[in-house]
Amino acid sequence: MNNKEDAGLKLKENVEEEAAISGLPGISEPAKTAREELRYRFKLSIKNLNAWFGKKKALQDVSLDIIENSVTAFIGPSGCGKTTLIRCLNRMHEMTPGASASGKVIMDGMDIYNEKIDPVTIKRRIGMVFQKPNPFPTMSIYDNVAAGLKLNGIKDKKLIDYIVRESLEGAVLWDEVKDELAKPGMGLSGGQQQRLCIARALAMQPEILLMDEPTSALDPIASSKIEELVYNLKRDLTVVIVTHNMQQAARVSDYTAFMYLGELIEFGETKQIFENPRKELTERYISGKFG
Amino acid sequence: MQQAKIDKITLIRELQKTMERKSSRKRKIDKLVTVLAIAGVCLAIIPLGSILFEVIKNGASAISIEFLIERPGALASGKGGIAPAIQGTLITVGLGSIIAAPIGVLAGIYLSEFAGTGPFPHAVRFFNDVLTGLPSIVLGIVGYIVVVLSLGSFSVWAGAFALSIIMIPIVVRVTEESLKVVPNSIREAGYSLGISKWKITIFITLKSALSGVLTGIVLGISRIAGETAPLIMTILGTSLFFTSFNEPVDALPLRIWRLASQPYESAHSQGWGAALILILIVMSFSIALRLLAMRRGYKVSSVM
Questions:
Q1: Quick one: how far is CA B201 from the chain centroid?
Q2: Which domains does chain A have, with CATH numbers?
Q3: Exposed, middle or buried by CB within 10 Å (0-12, 13-18, 19+), for B36?
Q4: Chain A interface, Cβ < 8 Å to B
Q5: Residue to substitute from A122, A151, A160, A167, interface B, most B β-carbons within 10 A
Q6: B45 burial level (CB within 10 Å; 0-12, 13-18, 19+)
Q7: Can you tell me the distance from the alpha carbon of B74 to that of B77, in angstroms, rounded to the nearest whole number?
Q8: Alpha carbons A190 and A130: distance in angstroms, whole number
Q9: Complex ipTM, two decimals?
Q10: pLDDT one-digit tens code per residue, B141-161
């Protein structure tokens, strides 16, 4: 996405197409120039999403739009549903026994909750990084990154080599591991393992990367490396990050959604949320009065 | 305020004193438990060690090249060897485990990864446990009725059939348990890459649990290699070499039993020798598998 001008033309077409397919209003705010439209292209539109664990409701009618090539952060106190929400975005939520979800999540005009859509293929386009680093225990560093490609039927060795290197570079891990690609992934430090997991997700060339508290198990230095990385990733893809660390949300994200008790309380530009929240609840959470 | 502070200090001192007293008692209990644990280990090792010692002492003298490569001679002569029994054990146990290992592993995969909760998997688990506890002679009779009577002859097939039924529940149980230990986050990582469930199960989950699964298979093979009762009713035993899968064949446990029930000293000595060979075969198999696994980077826990 180096040439913004070119991309802009293409994107504008997409927006119209998308609106036609899904009946979305596209850009609803009035009087936007084409250039502004570009800034506001929605990658994911969440519509009336509800989620349950058994009979317990975990998400209450959440609707929000995630803007392409941006970082969106979900914040809120423990148990507010931010992790459930992010896990609904690649249909990972329903893998938990007893869990279910209803509503729409529209990616590029396509509802990923449509019955005709295979949840497996969705996950190839929407990558995920988890709270605790979880590299595949029996695999080398190289195989960890290549696993997604190999197990999805890619056999071209040269292509895999290329993508492994590119992904490790994308996750800022290449320089640290380039001489020990055959060593087990579990031998790396926690921060390196998490970056390996990011590389593993990037290797699938996802359009969206979901990160569920990716730094909560890491020390501050390893965390800041991941934050830097997240900031750079948005040039090529759309990032959604769950964090319980408000400073982190303020540092890395462009947009912030504040959630409380399964409901979306407020969503807006990060700057606005942190400096000038509209809702009292948000203000109280941001200023540390509860949470 | 002042009063409260002093109170708190005395309170803390009091608490510390009590805990100090308690902890000296705890240290004594710690020591006692350690001693008991070591004593338990010793008690468990003594019979094992004495059996090994006895077998080596009595059996080593019987072993010679002739003993390993020849057919049994006349019973009282002390001549001849146990080659047909070695051959028969390798063939019958080999065939039995070739049947049992894949079935057991697949059933274990089903129970751990696909079954979920419900009456059917619950029943499978229950009957699997019952099968583990069945006396092996019963399985011998089953082998006799199902295979021997229908094929019309004692045979390797019948023996392998009976042995595999003994081995399957062991492999099922251990496979299920070792797959369940694989953290769910590993499976989720696989799902998040858009990999299909069966590929995750085989190439990621099973691979992560491979050391446990191999341990289960080794455990099963060691168990069936020593079985005698089901073999009497299925392969019968003979002093001839293996000719066909439809004919009776000899096996080491059978040969040991036959030699031991003779009144002759020389036969007893050969029996000890055969027992030693059986132990060595099982042991070397277990070690070989572990070395192989270690070379590929897996850990196999000890079963011998």
A1: 24
A2: 1-40 (no CATH), 41-286 (3.40.50.300)
A3: exposed
A4: 90, 92, 95, 97, 120-125, 127-128, 130, 132, 134-138, 147-148, 151-152, 184, 197, 200-201, 204
A5: A151
A6: exposed
A7: 5
A8: 13
A9: 0.82
A10: 999 999 999 999 999 999 999
